[in-house]
Design a protein that fits this description.
Helix content: 40-55%
Order of helices and strands: HEHEHEHEHEHEEEEHHHEE
Structural class: alpha/beta
Strand order of the largest sheet: 2-1-3-4-5
C-alpha cells in the first residue's frame, strides 16, 4: 500500500467501466494501491443499473459497442441522481472528434490510451480535488437569479420555476458566467477558459454544442443567450 494516503482519499469509491478485462485488472490494482476503493464493470448498461450515486468518480472507456462510453456518460449526466459525479473518459482517440464528443457528453476529463498509471492517478486526484473544493463552498449561498431562473454558485445547482435543472459541469459554469455578467459578451476562448480546465483541447464546436444544449435545458430563457457577430456569446435581458 502506498504511503502518505490521507483518510479522505481512502473514502473515495471509483468505478471503472471498460470492456477490456486486463486493463481493468491493472488499473484496479494500481488505484487500490493508492488507497482508493475500486469496482469494475465491463458493460455500460449493467453499470447504469448499479447505485452509481455512491461513487466519487467514474472512469469509462469509449467502448466500441452498441452502448458506447459516450452513451453511458450522456445517460449518467441526464440523471438528477448522478449528473454531478465526475467522469474521466479514457480511450485511444481515432480523431479529434472523439475527444470533442466525450467532452460534449459531459465528461470532466479525457485521457488518451496508452497512458501511464501515474498520469491517470494524477488526473483522478485533480478531478476529485476540484469536486472537494466545490463541496467546501456549499456552506455559502451565492445565488444569481434572472426572473425564475436561479443559479446557486455555492451549491452548484440550477432551478427553473422552482424545479431542478440537470446541467453538466460545463453547462453550469457557462450559465453562471453569463448570469453573473448579464449584458456582456464573451468570445469562445474566454468561455473555454471559464468552463474547461484544459481549454487547450477544447474546440469552438464544443463551446457551440454546450451552449446549444444549455439553451434547450433552460427554455424559455434559452433565447436570452445570444451570439452577436464580432462580440461573442452573452445573456441579454
Amino acid at each position: 500500500m502506498a504511503l502518505g494516503i490521507d483518510n479522505s482519499q481512502r473514502q473515495h469509491r471509483l468505478l471503472i467501466v471498460d470492456a477490456q478485462h486486463m486493463i481493468c485488472e491493472l488499473l484496479q490494482y494500481k488505484l487500490e494501491d493508492e488507497g482508493f476503493h475500486v469496482d469494475v464493470l465491463h458493460d455500460g448498461r449493467k453499470a447504469l443499473e448499479c447505485e452509481i450515486s455512491d461513487y466519487s468518480l467514474v472512469l469509462v472507456d469509449l467502448m466500441d459497442t452498441d452502448f458506447s462510453g459516450i452513451a453511458f456518460t450522456e445517460a449518467l449526466k441526464r440523471s438528477p441522481d448522478t449528473y454531478q459525479i465526475p467522469v474521466i473518459i479514457m480511450s485511444s482517440p481515432r480523431s479529434e472528434d472523439d475527444v470533442v464528443d466525450a467532452l460534449d457528453a459531459g465528461a470532466d476529463d479525457f485521457i488518451a490510451k496508452p497512458f501511464s498509471t501515474r498520469e491517470l492517478i494524477a488526473r483522478v486526484r485533480s478531478v476529485l480535488r476540484r469536486r472537494s473544493m466545490m463541496a467546501g463552498r456549499r456552506r455559502m449561498s451565492n445565488i444569481v437569479q434572472y426572473a425564475d431562473l436561479a443559479v446557486d454558485i455555492g451549491q452548484g445547482t440550477v432551478t427553473l420555476a422552482g424545479q431542478a435543472v440537470s446541467l453538466s459541469r460545463t453547462e453550469f459554469l457557462i450559465l453562471a458566467m453569463f448570469l453573473r455578467h448579464r449584458g456582456q459578451f464573451f468570445d469562445r476562448a474566454e468561455i473555454q477558459h471559464e468552463a474547461w480546465e484544459d481549454e487547450g483541447n477544447v474546440s469552438d464546436r464544443a463551446v457551440d454544442t454546450n451552449i446549444s444544449r444549455l439553451r434547450k435545458k433552460i427554455a424559455p430563457y434559452g433565447r436570452n443567450i445570444v451570439n452577436r457577430h464580432g462580440y461573442g456569446y452573452g445573456f441579454v435581458e
